Amino acid sequence: MQAVELVKMALAARENAYAPYSGILVGAALLTREGRIFSGVNVENVSYALTVCAERAAVLNAVSAGYRHFEALAVAWNKEGFCRPCGACRQVLYEFNPKMRIITADYSGEYQEQLLTALLPDAFGK
Ligand code: THU
C-alpha cells in the first residue's frame, strides 16, 4: 500500500481522537500483512497518566482482532511538523516488527517515511 493512502486513513481516524486536555488530536492507521487496516486514536483521561496514544490504540485494536503481522503504520495529528511516535509506542511497535515502515505526517498530509529500526536503534527486543 502507498504511504499516501495510509496517511489519509490516519487523518480520517484522527477525527475520533479524544483529547480534551491537550487539544492534540492524533490518528494512526496500521497495515497488516494480510492487507487489513486498523485505526487508533489517542484517548485522554482526566487522570492524565492514563492517556493512551493513537499508535498503541491501533496495535491493541489489531491484536484484539487476531492480527499480529504489521507492515506499516502511519500517524498524523492536527499540528505542524511530523507526528513522531513517543518512546513507549516505538517499543510496543518494535515487539511486532522491528522493520516496520513508520510514516509520520503533519495536519495537512505531508509525510516522511522511516524504518522503525531508525527510530529505535539498539532496542531491547525479544
Ligand atoms: N500522543 C499520541 O497519541 N501518540 C504519540 O506517539 C505521542 C503523544 C498523544 C497523547 C496525548 O493525548 C497527546 O498526544 C499529547 O501528548
Question: What's the gist of this structure?
Answer:
With 126 residues, the chain is an alpha+beta fold. The protein is built from 4 helices and 5 strands.
Please, could you describe this protein's structure?
This protein is α+β, with helices and mostly antiparallel strands. The chain has one domain (3-119): Cytidine Deaminase, domain 2, CATH 3.40.140. It has helices at 3-14, 54-64, 87-96, 116-119, and strands spanning 26-32, 37-41, 70-77, 101-105, 111-115. The chain has a five-stranded mixed beta sheet with strand order 2-1-3-4-5. Bound molecules: tetrahydrodeoxyuridine.
Seen as an oligomer or otherwise, the chain set is single chain
CATH H-level superfamily: Cytidine Deaminase, domain 2
What fraction, in percent, of the residue positions are helical?
A: 25-40%
- Binned strand content: 15-25%
Strand segment count: 5
Largest sheet: 5 strands, mixed
Structural class: alpha+beta
* Overall geometric form: globular
Query: Distance between termini?
Result: 28 Å
CATH level 3 topology: Cytidine Deaminase, domain 2
Cofactors, ions and other ligands in the entry: tetrahydrodeoxyuridine
CATH architecture descriptor text: 3-Layer(aba) Sandwich
CATH hierarchy, class: Alpha Beta
**Largest sheet: spatial strand order:** 2-1-3-4-5
Question: What number of domains?
Answer: 1
Our count of helices gives 4
Overall mean confidence score, pLDDT: 98
